[in-house]
Structures are given as structure tokens and as C-alpha cells.
Amino acid sequence: xxxxxxxxxxxxxxxxxxxxxxxxxxxxxxxxxxxxxxxxxxxxxxxxxxxxxxxxxxxxxxxxxxxxxxxxxxxxxxxxxxxxxxxxxxxxxxxxxxxxxxxxxxxxxxxxxxxxxxxxxxxxxxxxxxxxxxxxxxxxxxxxxxxxxxxxxxxxxxxxxxxxxxxxxxxxxxxxxxxxxxxxxxxxxxxxxxxxxxxxxxxxxxxxxxxxxxxxxxxxxxxxxxxxxxxxxxxxxxxxxxxxxxxxxxxxxxxxxxxxxxxxxxxxxxxxxxxxxxxxxxxxxxxxxxxxxxxxxxxxxxxxxxxxxxxxxxxxxxxxxxxxxxxxxxxxxxxxxxxxxxxxxxxxxxxxxxxxxxxxxxxxxxxxxxxxxxxxxxxxxxxxxxxxxxxxxxxxxxxxxxxxxxxxxxxxxxxxxxxxxxxxxxxxxxxxxxxxxxxxxxxxxxxxxxxxxxxxxxxxxxxxxxxxxxxxxxxxxxxxxxxxxxxxxxxxxxxxxxxxxxxxxxxxxxxxxxxxxxxxxxxxxxxxxxxxxxxxxxxxxxxxxxxxxxxxxxxxxxxxxxx
Amino acid sequence: xxxxxxxxxxxxxxxxxxxxxxxxxxxxxxxxxxxxxxxxxxxxxxxxxxxxxxxxxxxxxxxxxxxxxxxxxxxxxxxxxxxxxxxxxxxxxxxxxxxxxxxxxxxxxxxxxxxxxxxxxxxxxxxxxxxxxxxxxxxxxxxxxxxxxxxxxxxxxxxxxxxxxxxxxxxxxxxxxxxxxxxxxxxxxxxxxxxxxxxxxxxxxxxxxxxxxxxxxxxxxxxxxxxxxxxxxxxxxxxxxxxxxxxxxxxxxxxxxxxxxxxxxxxxxxxxxxxxxxxxxxxxxxxxxxxxxxxxxxxxxxxxxxxxxxxxxxxxxxxxxxxxxxxxxxxxxxxxxxxxxxxxxxxxxxxxxxxxxxxxxxxxxxxxxxxxxxxxxxxxxxxxxxxxxxxxxxxxxxxxxxxxxxxxxxxxxxxxxxxxxxxxxxxxxxxxxxxxxxxxxxxxxxxx
Lengths: 563, 448
What we know:
The complex is a heterodimer of chains A (563) and B (448).
Chain A: E1 5-8, E2 11-14, E3 19-23, E4 26-29, E5 32-34, E6 42-45, E7 49-53, E8 55-60, H1 65-72, H2 75-78, E9 82-83, E10 92-93, H3 100-109, E11 112-120, H4 125-133, E12 139-145, H5 150-157, H6 161-175, E13 179-183, H7 187-193, H8 213-227, E14 234-236, H9 246-255, E15 261-263, E16 271-273, E17 282-284, H10 286-294, E18 299-302, E19 309-315, H11 318-324, E20 332-336, E21 344-350, H12 355-370, E22 377-378, H13 392-400, H14 402-409, H15 414-418, H16 432-447, E23 463-467, H17 472-477, E24 481-484, E25 487-491, E26 494-495, E27 503-505, H18 514-525, E28 543-545
Parallel strand pairs in A: 1-6, 2-7, 8-11, 11-12, 12-13, 13-14, 14-15, 15-18, 18-22, 27-28
Antiparallel strand pairs in A: 1-4, 2-3, 4-5, 7-23, 9-10, 16-17, 19-21, 20-21, 23-24, 24-25, 25-26
Helix pairs in contact in A: 6-8, 10-12, 13-14
Chain B: E1 5-11, E2 23-28, E3 33-38, H1 42-50, E4 59-61, E5 64-66, H2 68-81, E6 85-89, H3 95-108, E7 111-114, H4 121-130, E8 131-135, H5 137-143, E9 146-150, H6 154-157, H7 159-166, E10 182-187, E11 199-202, H8 208-219, H9 228-232, H10 236-248, E12 251-256, H11 258-261, H12 267-280, E13 285-290, H13 297-308, E14 314-315, E15 322-323, H14 330-335, E16 341-345, H15 349-352, H16 355-363, E17 366-370, H17 375-379, E18 382-385, E19 396-398, E20 404-406, H18 418-433
Parallel strand pairs in B: 6-7, 6-16, 9-10, 9-12, 10-11, 12-13, 16-17, 17-18
Antiparallel strand pairs in B: 1-2, 2-3, 4-5, 4-18, 7-14, 14-15, 19-20
Helix pairs in contact in B: 2-18, 3-13, 3-18, 4-12, 8-10, 8-12
């Protein structure tokens, strides 16, 4: 936990507690922020520096089966970007999909202390936890894929909504997940079962099931809200990347009907269709999306900004990855998981001269610059889909420095800018406080992590100290100090200690009777035994259960019939 | 049979890459033996029957009996002094042990390599070139209506690939099981697997690549000259028939073995097959899966990949992972007499490596971890007897389709696990070196 610590003379940005650049002390003891420490406690002089809570990535892809496939398929990206071992820390390799140790250390060297892996098949939960074990420094959690789950489809098709809720709770608990995730609901079943087809609208029939994405999404939003999860259902909408998908996105948000829902990487879902001949070309509809979010406090989103340069498409949306395969330098990975999901991987590069890529870049910035509530439109690149997390400092500079932004705009495809509204929001510059919200306080609040994203007494002592600099990219690239759970991990920009973070997960109650519905399905359609499926506590040496606040009791299910 | 019987339900067989987790074991706790293994195939039955507890010393140093602690000290001294050590094997132990083995390689700046380099290594290289469309075994069970085995003999090597996963089982969209599937077998000769197939295609030895490339051409609508038959032994008509079937099925799968990867062409063969599966996705759903041999070779690929970015043949001597098959793969390192020490875990290279490589193993200090006496343990300077994974030790194993499963051990062993021994070695080496060894010329600041 480290010895007691007093950070003095720094300008503190703690928006959750209304602190906006005031020079005040921050005290740390036993891994927590405390009111005071003894006078002989170690001091960090943060004069000329900015003190913020540790960064929190609400949506990234850093561990588990698909991430490891993406690592393996790109050896050429590892060899020129290496992580040297030190006396204390492990070596690794980088690229857009770094090895586990490199991932943890590199997040830490940007001042991040928490990250959420955004798409894990339930069958891959154990693998993900094994990788987390080898991902240092960060506190971590993962969102478990439930939107293409065939048992849940059967329950929903038969109108067994109560059992759907219990089964969802069971799946969250036995996989040690943090939140439920929907990815292109219905799309994977169309892909695997209907000769590589896809869903095109919320009212398409899902393969041989008497279901539509509309019913699936509505049911999961309802179940997630009833379970009182700290983070609501996390939705990757249908039609990602397709021109004109804005209507699907707006319709999906309306399905929430006032209940909480989070829309992932919404930039990829904010496209109109050009009129006339170039119909397949997307246009920006960021304004319609952000207006809806600005006026609907039940909806939150992470932006999923695109940064020029190398990226890796890795997604549970298998048909999308197939569509993009021609950009992958002849490499394409597809991986189907029985009864649960699909997965696609394509190496990718966003180019500023390419119309679509430039438009995507512009839309990400538009959404952030037009957002009126930074607490609900938070920072992400959907790492590594929109670009590596290592590009976060540059994205921060684009938001904080309009001169720099203007300069960058001059280099990109101008036709794309014509189809966006980016030129209309040139004035806005994010303040340090707003950056602290979209990268820390906001994600913590959306995730329901009450001990994170702020520096109030009792908060986790995850603190980042940046040297102030006119060049915000430089400033956010290499914090002077990073404190994790009260321990000084980075000092004078260098890793000084290794650290094992926690697994953040939920454990909602469910009616045990639901197992009698689930087990027969396993006997028939899985190739792993029901008894061997739940992940046991050995995979969570350092876990923290985040409580749920259910609005419906875990009442007995109505029927235990075989599905 | 003793009085003290126990039944372990849903235990896992780690003999082959099928990693079947539906074993119901009857264990005689007094005799420390597994009397019965319900659901096991003939190979699994033998695996469980033959892994009782033998009377072996905990460790041998230079052929003399030693304690585990003494052997840890001897092993740590060898590894700490070595300049170019090799860590090899790992496919028959848990991921927890594999993780520590890679950590040791990183710490001392050695090389870590797994049995993948002598089995499906070419498939791993092909994967890096073209990617792969693949699926978990349950998708094959639930959906595959066209199953093509290529260069393998599952009836003898992976019997339950037929009965549990890919041929006879009923699945969600395959309600009649075997009747709903067409099974094709491609091989250079008839084997006990042949009768299981509806269609047997016999290719001339060393012509798999030509057959696969011709299939790719036909799938893309190109012309193939009938002389293909002279070269490959397969007529154009047979190829055209297969292509028609492959394009019209609903869910097709290639399950390919070492008959393809360890044949003339190696990773070109695997690459051609993976590319063919990719091409077929223009028409319908297609996946491919290398059929893996050792129980946790897939776990080894995964662990080495997530820790280093590369699947096997990884060297750390410059302070970071480098991958170069042919340079850092074990047979090559040993044959060129480069390794100056070797830590061999759960593997028996002295039994199956080329002669020149084995000769070099005899020249250098070798440390082994194995439950049994093998040709490799017999040439070792330090030989640990360890408990058997899946029978005495829990932990994680990855099935050939990357699905991780937690082991349920049947009875306790007096011997330590691989993970325990490796952890003790790692801690002792770390103490001897004062932390990770830094390569010459490493920045001083990083050493603090």
C-alpha cells in the first residue's frame, strides 16, 4: 500500500468534488485518500503540476481470446515497438495490441489506473482473467457478451422475461463480469447460421428465431435496470460503420424509454447517407446524435474517436469485420463461440486522405465538441479499433488546443470536412476540468465506481500528477508521478514499482432454480460441462465486488421447464 | 480394489487436444489409482490407468537422489550461470506453470519454446500470414453439415473428435447427428479413420499444396488443367465435386492435422488451407481448425502469446521478446549447439528430436520436470519428479479450440506440481541475480 504521502503545491482537478484547479494538499494513506497524514509523511512537491484522479478507460479491448488472436496475427507490429524489461518489471511488445505486461505498464505511463475490457465471451471469461493476472498496475473489469446468446434468445422468444433476468444475473455472476454487453444483437446468428448474412434493421428477423433486435435490446435494457447493475447494459448498436446507421442508433436509444443505457463508441454509429450517386458514402449526423443525448439524461455514451495511423479492428461483430477484411492486408480472423458470439479481427490503418476515415475522425471530434454534458459523453477510441490508447494524449490536445486542431484539419480530406459540422465548432476548447471529467470522473460515475474518479476522502488513492505544459499532448503523454492504491508506481516519469491491480466485478442475486433451465441446454448444445463452466475464485486473487441495487427481488422463477 | 473409493465427476482428460471434460473417475484413494474412467476413449482410459503414483525419488542430481530443495538450488545455479539457456516443452502442464516458465525465460534472458515448434508451428506461422476463420468445437457440433478432415487420423489420434464434437453428435441445427453431415477425409493413405468418411480423397504424398491451390482456383471460378490428376492423384472431377459441396453447405469446417503441417510445404500448406477456408466465406460459412495433439499445447500458445506477443520460439536475450522460427526454435538452437543449458518441462525431446539435437542435450546441463522417467530425464543433470496435471494437480488447460477448462484432480500426489517447482526456481534465480538480468548496455535508469 506504500507509506503515507502528502502531495503539496499542485493544482488539483477533482470535478466530482467541485475542485477546479485550486492549489490544495492531497493526502494518501493505506491505499485511500485521507483528510490528513502525519507531518513526517513523505511529500511530493507538485508545484507547476496538475493533480487528477487516475484515468479510467470505460471501453477498450486489452485481454481475452480475441485480443490474443489479434496479438498473434500481427507479429510485424511487435518487433519494432518493444518494452524492455527492467530489474523489477517484465518485458513485452507493443503495436496496437500490446502484450499483457506492456499493456499495464503503458496505461500506467499515461496516468491511467483503471480499464474495462469491453467484449468477452462467457466461455472466454477464464482466459480473460488469466490475462488480467498478467496485466499489471490497472484495476480491471470486463463486459460479458450476452446479445447473441442462444439460450437467452430461447427464453425471450418464449416470453420468459423473469427467467431471462435470472439467467442474465447467473451469467454475470459465474463469469465474474462487470456489465452485460450487446454487440450487433442478432448479427452473429445471421453470420453463423445464415451463410454470413447480417442484421440490417431493428425489425429484421434473427435467423430461425422468432425475434428481432428490437425485442432483444428492449428486454436486456429492462433486465439490466431491474438488476440494478452499477453499469447498465452496454450496447454496440446494429449497423456499425454503415452509411445511414444514425436512424438505427436513434431508434436504439429510444428503446430505453427513459431507462439507463450506455451506447458504445457512438462515433461509429452517427453516419448519414450521402444523397444521389455517392449514397454509399457516409456523412456526419453527429448533431442529431448529440442533440438526443444532450436532452436524454438516461443515455450515456463513449465517443469511440478515430485517430489516424495504425489500428486493429477487433469485435464481436463478425459480419462487420468481414466487410472490412479487404483493408486488412490479406489478414482476417473470424472466431465463432458456440451459443454465445462471433468475433472478427482485421489489421487496419486510418488515413487522413481517405474520405471515410477523415469523416470518422471529424465525427469523433464533433461529438465531443458539441456535447453539453461531459459526464455522459466520455472519452474513448474503442482501443484499438479507432486507434491505440497510446494516442489518447494527441486526442486530448485536439480537444484542448483549437490552433492545433485547425492545423490538423488542413491536412485531412476536405470533402469529408464539408460533410461534417466540425468547422462550425472550431471555437470550443476543453478545459482541464472537462478533460478530468471525460477521462476520469465521468467514466467512474457511468460505471458506478463510487471510490474512483475523484480525490475525496475515502476514494481509492489512484492519483496522476502531470507537469503543466502548453503542449497538451506532451503533458498527457508522460505524467511525472502515478500513484496506484497509494503506492508510487511512476516517479520522475519512470516505472519504480510493480503492482497487481484488482478485478472489479458484480455478483447479482438470482433464483437458483434458473440453473435447472440452463443445465439441460448445456447438456444438449455446449461442449463443456455445466459444472465446469463457472469461473472459480482462484482466477480472482484480488477481486472487488461492486454492489448491485435491484429494483426487483430475486423471486422464484415461474417455471423450471426444459427449454 | 480398496475400500476407500471416491468418484470425481466432470474431470478432464488432458491426454490430447480434445481436452474432454466429461470424465467420471472412480478413484481408489488407498492405492492412489484411477480404477475407471467413464466416457474416456481408448487413449483416455490408458492415460488415467497409467498415472498412478510410482516410487521415484523427488529429484535426482547427477543421478543421485536429492530433495526438491536441493534440486531447486542446483537448477537455479545452472540457469543463473547460463548465457544462452533454452526453456522447452510446456504442452503437458498447466497454464499456471507455463506462465512461470515464461517469466523465468524473461528474467534470465533465455529462450522459451514449446512443442508447437515441432507440431503445428507451421500453422501458427500461416496464421500470422493470412489469419484464420475458426470456431469453437461446439459450433461444429451444432452447425457443421460438411466436415473435411485433412492430413489426420482422428480414429486413432483423437477418437472423440468423431464422437463428441464433429461427426456423430446431434447439435442445435444438426438434429439427426451423423445423418445431417457429409464427412470428407483427405489423406495420403487409408487409415482406420477412412471408414468414417462419406468421401475419401487420396492425394499423392507431398502434393497437398497443389490440391489446395487447385481447390482455391476452382472456388474462384478459374480453370484447372486436368493434368492436376497426374501430379496429385486426384481427378479434376473429384475436385469439382468437392468444390460444389463446399460452396453449397451451410457451415463447413476443415479439421487439419500434422499430415499437412509436417509435410513438404509446411506453412505453405497450412496457409493454403486457411486461405481456402477464407475464400469459401464468399459463398457460405466456413471455418478451419488445426487438430492439436498435446493436452495443453494450445494453452502454451496462448500464454506465450499474451506474455510476449509471439506464440513460440521467443528469445529474450536483448531484454525484450524476439520471435524467429528457425533461429529460436529448439531443434535449431540445439542442432547448432547454441544453447548452453536447458530446462525441459513436461516434454521428452530426447525421445523425438533429431539426433544432432539430442547429442547437444547430452553436452549441456539439462533440468527436467516430469512425472515419469523418460529418455530426457535420464540425460538430465537435475531431474524433478512432479505431479501429473489433471490427475493430481488442478489448473487451467486450453482445448484445441482455445476454450479454457479448470482441472479437477483425482487424488493427491506426494510430488510437487510443475508450478510449485518452477516458482521456487524463479524465486531462487531472482535472488541469485538480484532481480531481472539486464542485457549488456541497458540504460542504467531502468535498473533502479
